[in-house]
Amino acid sequence: MCDKGSMAQYTRVSGFVGLITLQNPPVNALSAAVRQGIVDMVERALSDPIVKSVVICGQNGNFCGGADIKEFGTNMSGPPLVPMIDAIEAANKPVVAAIEGSALGGGLELALGCHYRIAHSKARLGLPEVTLGLLPAAGGTQRLPRLVGVPAALNLITTGRHVTAAQALQLGIVDQVTDHNAVDVAVTFSLSVAGQSLDARRISTYLCPLPSDFDALFEGVMQKVRQSARGAIAPVACVQAVRAAATLPYTKGMEREQELMATLFTSGQARAQQYCFFAQRAVGRWRMPSGARWETSKPRPVHKAAVIGLGTMGRGITVALAQTGLSVVAVETQEKQLMEAKQAVSGMLERGAKRHGVVPTLDRISYSQNIQAIAEVDLVIEAVFEDMALKTEVFQQLSAVCKPGTLLCTNTSALDVDKLASETPNPELVVGMHFFAPAHVMKLLEVVYGPRSSPQAVATAMQLGKKMGKVSVAVGNCRGFVGNRMLMPYLQQAFFLLEEGATPELVDQALEEFGFPMGVFRMSDLSGLDIGWRVRKRDELVEPDMASGKSARIRQGSRYSPLGDLLCEQGRFGQKTGRGWYQYDKPGSRVARSDPWLHSFLVEYRARHGLVPRSIDHQEVLERCLYALINEGFRILEDGIAAGPEDIDVIYVFGYGWPRHRGGPMFYAGMVGLAKVLERLEHYQQAHPDVPYLQPCSLLRRLVAGGSPPIHRWREVIKKHQSQL
Ligand SMILES: CCCCCC/C=C/CC(=O)SCCNC(=O)CCNC(=O)[C@H](O)C(C)(C)COP(=O)(O)OP(=O)(O)OC[C@H]1O[C@@H](n2cnc3c(N)ncnc32)[C@H](O)[C@@H]1OP(=O)(O)O
């Protein structure tokens, strides 16, 4: 017997079991229609006298990915989740959740309303709402602590992390784990418990186990959460909701859960985080200005890859490749460097394997000093020192050694990928792969295509990035690509603010309060001031004999601040030398302390150049640094270097520490209001006419003139704008 009409299919199986199957591909999200289906089918099963027990499962081996996030921005209709789950829990016949694939968010909350949970061994469970700026508001914050205790519930709910079926069993979230068909096991099990009392199976009736150090525990967790949340409100609300579970009866706790959720649900932060969720997936649907796109470009198979150059980046890339299961040839011409790299890579793989409880993949890597060793690989990632002449030489060698069709990738943060491609006989096989340090940890990968890169080469690099667990974004070739290009105006404004009266501490504090893990000066100290110095020298911006006055701060026709150069001349390269914008206890130490030398240096510098310091507040720091960066983002869109605002936002959230609860720079501009961003840029441009980065971009003007459409409509405007340029 079967009813296929709704988005929850009803079948009677094994004679006496009502089987309800959620059907909403790809993840069986709880849309209004699915919820209605569940309500109707549960009612049907419970009212059918032949049915002794009920099993709920999901179609295509996937239980449920939670509430339908797409519905959040709409007038949510259909039956609400809470009464639906309460009705399941109150049922007088056993209801068993058969969990395959994922049980996340509302999906796990649905399962927690069931009387029993049986999971397949490959299933994953979690309450990831916090990552969407929400909390588990279908009873998750009240049932989970009652089931698994407060500390475990706090951990799962405030981090949103997923657990494996085995971990879920250990925690007590599921009752049984099986390697067999979980639905079949659940059906048999449900019949075995039919007719038994369900009193002890309704989690909402449990007393929440209270830890002895209750106050200290909550205080500690709240402190930790506030610190790591960097201004995000959802993690804090999660702690408050769990505290309600521990201190209030279930119904009162539920009221608190709903109250907290209502605040989060309408907050800009939730909108930003949900935008990030979809943006992260949208960047996989890449397209190039030529019209080539992800759906029509088939990647080449990559079984064996090579890494050339085993410095810090090359080592991280080798680890990341080996962890995907590929065979890797790692080449380093210097013997000492090769030996050190081998040891370092093995160490990283062993530590990674230990963390994940698996066997390290050391034998997947072969090391060589000879570039001939890469003759048979399908793809090469060159990671030698960031120097065009050196990279060109290496690329010429690669072209001579590799078998025909091998994809040649360069790991570069700013060099001209097209120029490098033009030095090879097959420029269509060349793309940039801009990894972020440490390359085996950082999630972001910019895949840089030049005008001659083939769609297949881009598709292959994008697919490899995905396999390596990266969030890969395809971007066009220009100086600094997307991320580093936008960083230039940001850094420049920070330097100018110092000239005008700010301190590194003030600028960093403003940016950290905004939500960056580190302000611009602490970040520069960490990455090394010498990196930018080298680039500026190459660009002939650094003048050794610096005069005084305004003219000394004009380079190539625009305002220039030599502050970074002056620090480098003093050997102040940041953490590695123990001195930079801050001072450190010793070279390599990480704790930044305010440096009186730097403050005196700034005072002298301003005096020498006739700069009268003024008081600068946090708002000016944010407007100048962030709006200049955003303005460059609009230029990048105008130039077609990024296909859409989502690409830029994903790059900034995953690679540059932009706070996720603010959605990314382009989303943030929309939240602030494009007209306001434009007005402030115009204001600052008038005050600083010698700073081209503050000149508002024409795309921004056009968007404002067009009534500041929502971000999902920008692509239409960009297309029209580009066609008229
Ligand atoms: C006052 C209001 C009351 C509301 C109370 C109810 C609150 C409930 C809270 C929730 O349940 S919030 C949702 C919690 N769930 C999640 O966060 C899970 C999100 N999904 C994932 O983590 C992953 O998608 C997955 C389930 C682990 C599957 O990963 P996989 O890599 O296999 O596929 P994806 O590429 O990520 O996704 C495929 C496709 O599906 C879309 N999608 C996934 N989950 C949802 C969802 N919950 N709602 C809507 N759509 C979803 C995803 O966007 C992809 O589609 P796209 O077109 O490529 O974007």
UniProtKB/TrEMBL annotation:
- Catalytic activity of the protein: (3E,5Z)-octadienoyl-CoA = (2E,5Z)-octadienoyl-CoA; a (3Z)-enoyl-CoA = a 4-saturated (2E)-enoyl-CoA; a (3S)-3-hydroxyacyl-CoA + NAD(+) = a 3-oxoacyl-CoA + NADH + H(+); (3S)-hydroxyhexadecanedioyl-CoA + NAD(+) = 3-oxohexadecanedioyl-CoA + NADH + H(+)
Keywords annotated in UniProt: Fatty acid metabolism, Isomerase, Lipid metabolism, Lyase, Multifunctional enzyme, NAD, Oxidoreductase, Peroxisome
Primary location recorded for the protein, binned into one broad class: other
Record bears the keyword Transcription: no
Alphabetized GO MF terms: (3S)-3-hydroxyacyl-CoA dehydrogenase (NAD+) activity; delta(3)-delta(2)-enoyl-CoA isomerase activity; enoyl-CoA hydratase activity; NAD+ binding
Q: Which CDD domains match?
A: crotonase-like
* Protein family (similarity comment): Belongs to the enoyl-CoA hydratase/isomerase family.
What this protein is called in its record is: Peroxisomal bifunctional enzyme
Q: How does it assemble?
A: Monomer.
Q: What is its EC number?
A: 1.1.1.35, 4.2.1.17, 5.3.3.8
Its domain of life?
Eukaryota
Q: Check the record and name the InterPro entries matching this protein.
A: 3-OHacyl-CoA_DH_CS, 3-OHacyl-CoA_DH_NAD-bd, 3HC_DH_C, 6-PGluconate_DH-like_C_sf, ClpP/crotonase-like_dom_sf, Enoyl-CoA_hyd/isom_CS, Enoyl-CoA_hydra/iso, NAD(P)-bd_dom_sf
Protein's pathway: Lipid metabolism; fatty acid beta-oxidation
Q: Where is the 3-hydroxyacyl-CoA dehydrogenase NAD binding domain?
A: 304-477
Q: Which GO terms describe its biological process?
A: fatty acid beta-oxidation
Q: Name one Pfam family in it.
A: 3HCDH
- UniProt keyword annotation of NAD present: yes
Location in or out of the cell: Peroxisome
Q: Which GO terms describe its cellular component?
A: peroxisome
Q: Where is the 3-hydroxyacyl-CoA dehydrogenase C-terminal domain?
A: 480-584, 621-707
